[in-house]
Amino acid sequence: MQCKPWIRLPGDSASKRIGYGAAALLLTAVAYAVLGCPMRLLTGLPCPGCGMTRAWLSVLRLDFAAAFAFHPLWPLPLLLVVCWFTVRRRSAAAFRLCLGAAGLLLVIVFVIRLSRQDPIVALHPEDGLIIRALHICGLV
Ligand SMILES: [Zn+2]
Asked: How far is the CA of 48 from the centre of ligand 1 (A)?
């Protein structure tokens, strides 16, 4: 079963779609490198992906112990890319199942990390921009 693309881009072709995807990944990586996690920036609270960027930077240095310490599911994005190119071509439903399983796994591991008080996912709402803005306005 062939999947329909999510959006149609000008001059849509497989190589251009890969180029757009690579550009989106690069922009996201730069934004994360400059700003860090957007949820943590705004709320001071971690998200299930917190530590993933640092984990992948550790992988690039071939420091796999540090990668697992920053985020135990660091291989997950790579597995999803493999699923994108393999499972999705055969079955959109199976690919959605993979995405759902990955999301569920992220949430389960996030809860475990929170319960173990992993410093990567420490809660610091006072550091979030929202609380700081409310504090500056005298609302908290
Ligand atoms: Zn995060």
From this structure: 6
- CA–CA separation, 89 vs 52, rounded Å? 27
Can you give the pTM of this predicted structure?
0.74
Site of tokens 């990955």: 102
For residue 134, the one-letter residue type is L
Amino acid at 123: L
Task: Find the mean pLDDT for residues 90-119.
Answer: 95
pLDDT at 92 over 70: yes
Q: What number of helices (H) and strands (E) belong to the chain?
A: 8, 0
Question: How many angstroms separate the alpha carbon of residue 33 from the centre of ligand 1?
Answer: 12
CA atoms within 13 Å, Cβ hemisphere of 109: 21
- Whether pLDDT at 76 is above 60: yes
